[in-house]
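Our consortium's second objective concerns turning raw sequence data into structural hypotheses that experimental partners can test. To show how far this objective has progressed, the report includes one record in full. It was chosen at random from the queue rather than selected for favorable results. The single chain below, 152 residues long, was entered without modification.
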Amino acid sequence: MSDVYIHHGSNHYDSIKFIPIKNNLLFVKPEGGLWGSPENASYGWSDWCKDQDFHTGKLEASFRFTLAPHANILQIDNKENLVELPKAEIPTVNGKAFPMPPMPWVYLDFERLLADGIDAIQVNMSNDTAERYNDSLYQTLYGWDCDSATRS
């Protein structure tokens, strides 16, 4: 776990632009929150952006932040860490469950996690040791492309 996180895309935190975390139906990442990568991440946001040639110009603007010493941080290092966590309800269309993609994605209930006292969620993709791709944290939380954290 890192004590210092880095957020790219802005030189300072602006509370006016902050959007509280909420579930993002049919996607494994929540909307909102303050996103950052641990400053000492094995593979953080800046690494992923450079590898993918994605918004690399926005990497120049950044700021560092820390979490309160007593913050309750949910650490996710592998697929097994997801088993006991609350899952989001799958939406219905005309009374039937919305057809989900045939992938092993897990849709966490981020709003419930926050209501249950979680202050931040840190996904450590580089800690995953799954031998099969379909068992990997990367595949299960597809879209969390690097070591990252979000806080409410």
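The partners drew two points from this record. The chain is about 10% helix and 20% strand. The chain has one domain: 5-151. Both points have been shared with the crystallography group to help prioritize constructs.
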